[in-house]
Amino acid sequence: MSSKNIYLILFLFVIVSSMLVGYSDSQKTRNLSEEEYIETTLTQLGYPAAARAGALFNPVAGGIYLPIKNFYRNQNVNPFGIYRTSRFVGYHSGVDIEVDSDDLAKDVPVYSIYNGEVLKVETASGYGGVVIIRHNFEGNNNLAGVYGHLRLRDIKVKPGQRITSGYLIGYLGAAYSSETGAERKHLHFGLYKNRDVDIRGYVDSQRELEDWFNPNGFMREAGAKEVD
């Protein structure tokens, strides 16, 4: 067989192999849900992996709730771990859940994801109203939730109060007002290993980001559901 034919065969082999790999990858992607596809894409882009919830606590069946409706679908602007250099600088320590256009003029409720104790209710620069809750997960009660951009005057909880899973915390503030710290109408939700109260929406380094959990993976593995 001539060297020319050998090179031709090798060329065809490489092309066919590439097509088969591409087909296999497309089949895998096709079988992913929308949330899984987003998580996979972010991982491929180098964003921090989702935290595993199972190693942290054992929630009772149906005992953990998503903090807002369309929690997964509406995370399309500011994911966990992304680095920003605009108004805020640093690695995003939580996820932003946007609201549908139809809800911009409506009261959008925010709920406690689990049982816990309210640590802080305050107004803060860049947030408007913000609530911190220490959640009493079985096996690890040192996880705190940050619920940001709430309308302070209508927050339903106060520091020291013990609340139940799915408890109504309050409502999102109006877009680009003091209620949201001049930000768009959305919920900033973060989860961190609680020591002191920490309301930072951005941290300076990836090392600091290790103290925070990716809410997407955490809530999925916990089997969180929307409040009825």
What does this structure look like?
By secondary structure, the chain is of the alpha+beta class. It has a domain at 83-221: Distorted Sandwich (Glucose Permease (Domain IIA)), CATH 2.70.70.10. The protein has 4 helices and 12 strands. Strands 3, 5, 6, 7, 8, 10 and 12 form a 7-stranded antiparallel beta sheet that branches. The protein is globular, with a radius of gyration of 22 Å. The N and C termini lie far apart (72 Å). Mean pLDDT is 81; it is low at 18-29 and 45-62.
Provide a short characterization of the protein structure.
With 228 residues, this protein is α+β, with helices and mostly antiparallel strands.
Q: Which properties best describe this structure?
A:
Glucose Permease (Domain IIA); globular; alpha+beta; 228 residues; 22% helix
CATH fold topology of the domain at 83-221: Glucose Permease (Domain IIA)
Task: Outline the low-pLDDT stretches.
Answer: 18-29, 45-62
Shape: globular
Instruction: Please estimate the helix content.
Output: 10-25%
- Going by helix content, strand content and strand pairing, the class is alpha+beta
**What kind of sheet is the major sheet?**
7 strands, antiparallel
The helix count comes to 4
Q: Write out the CATH superfamily name of the domain at 83-221.
A: Glucose Permease (Domain IIA)
CATH class (first level) name of the domain at 83-221: Mainly Beta
What's the CATH architecture name of the domain at 83-221? Distorted Sandwich
Order of helical and strand elements: HHEEEEEEEEEEEHEH
Distance between the termini: 72 Å
